[in-house]
# Entry
Amino acid sequence: MMAADSEIIRCEWCLGFPEYIEYHDREWGVPSFDSRYLFEMLILEGMQAGLSWATVLKKREHFREAFDNFDPGKMARYDRNKKDELLANPGIIRNRLKVEASVSNAQAFLRIEESGRTFSDYIWSFTEGEPVINTFRSLKEVPASTPVSDRMSKQLKKDGFKFVGSTICYAFMQATGMVNDHVVSCFRHKG
# Structure
């Protein structure tokens, strides 16, 4: 883990919580083109809805174990017994609608891949395959959603995904490096 000393300037949102600092320094905003990782992050962002990201980070390893390492092929086949098992698992967020959405999202993921596109190509098409580099100076400038996340949300819903509102989509874009929303003074802004 990178030292959290006062000489390193970070985005304000990650300060005061070691897991946030680790996530910020190593993962948040790093462009990923790995379809399975992108799927994991889409599921986790949906699970976070109405909760703090800290809650999700603390439970992330439990999610990976419970959801077969976010293997869409396995998740798409979850039956009622598996869903009930998940809802009884205290290591994850036990919300029936979110668990159901995770299964239908896995099915939607497979439909996209069966159409001949990778999920990565599908997701990155919203930014034309390139990260959007923003130059915000403070957290107050960072939007909760954008016209691009609006389009992504609309298309994902059309393609059968759930828990993919525009705010969730924008948080997903930030997390996976589709947009670089590190403030310009942050040491991670330039990569």
Remarks:
- The chain has a mean pLDDT of 95.
- The domain at 12-21+29-180 is CATH 1.10.340.30 (Endonuclease III; domain 1).
